[in-house]
Amino acid sequence: MTIYSKITAAGQYVPQRVVTNNELAAIMDTTDDWIQSHTGIVTRHFAMDDENTSALATQVAQQLLTKSGLSASAIDLIIVTTITPDALTPATACLVQANIGADNAFAFDMSAACAGFTFGLSTADKFIRSGQYQNVMVISAEVNSKMMDFKDRTAAVFFGDGAGGVLMQPTSHPAENSILAEKLQTQGNATVIHSGRVQPIKNISADNYPQTDAFYQAGREVFQFATTVVPEQMKTLLNTAEVSPEDLQYVICHQANLRIIEQIAAKLALPMAKFPHNVQKFGNTSSAGVAMALAGVFDQLTGPVLLTAFGGGLAYGSILIKK
């Protein structure tokens, strides 16, 4: 019997603290007008005090349990995609497992930068198709604010914190299959986007102590990549799946920048009405952006949806799904 995977629930969460453009303009050389005209972003949410990445992911996990009616003990696997984990170890996914009491699950993190949710969905799909796993959570969670250099106006104004995710379960009915086609790619490039670099020691000294770099992106190169290479991948996937852009109910892009989403819409010759977006309210939430936007329209889904994300790596992935 062939086993397929289906997405059965979706959720999203953002911290309470809202940060306006004017608040950032008070601490760096920028303005609300510049931020809105270049990015479309009006506000973003920041996690504060003890609310770390695992806390955001746990909120989504609890939503998925509530919506599905499952007990935590029924969860087999938890995948958390993040580039802003609570720590290098233990995995943020393991902290979520402990927080919800999913004693029968195993859990791990994935790092594919802003493409994390598409990579996570693909991975969960393979676990379910193996026939060994019944209930899998894929949660993308980011606290980008803790990795920002707030003197770097080219990056800090873009980012916000948030989490989104889905529950995936098996089905033997092809008509219920949620993952219709996929294309995941990487280009080994350590310079365009990087975060959390840790340098080796130079000598043996009592003064040695680990230090990490803040997030960095070369904005023009990211924009060029996102508006040229990424749309071509999307078109290739649609051609392979024999789905025309006009047949898509929605296209959910990485919520990096409203101007990038507008450019991708133009490249596909589709109206912006087909592109759900939350970047104005939440900013760039890295891997969580696509998951959050999907959760926002999940109850409305009736047709095929193309998910596309891109980020450090350079990693980029497109997945054609349906509910």
UniProtKB/TrEMBL annotation:
Keyword Ribonucleoprotein: no
Active site (UniProt): 114, 254, 284
Keyword set, alphabetical order: Acyltransferase, Cytoplasm, Fatty acid biosynthesis, Fatty acid metabolism, Lipid biosynthesis, Lipid metabolism, Multifunctional enzyme, Transferase
Pathway involvement of the protein, from the record: Lipid metabolism; fatty acid biosynthesis
Coiled-coil stretches: none
Cited SUPFAM superfamilies: Thiolase-like
Compartmental location: Cytoplasm
Domain Beta-ketoacyl-[acyl-carrier-protein] synthase III N-terminal: 108-188
E.C. designation(s): 2.3.1.180
UniProt similarity note: Belongs to the thiolase-like superfamily. FabH family.
Domain notes: The last Arg residue of the ACP-binding site is essential for the weak association between ACP/AcpP and FabH.
Name this polypeptide is given: Beta-ketoacyl-[acyl-carrier-protein] synthase III
Organism, as annotated: Lactiplantibacillus daoliensis
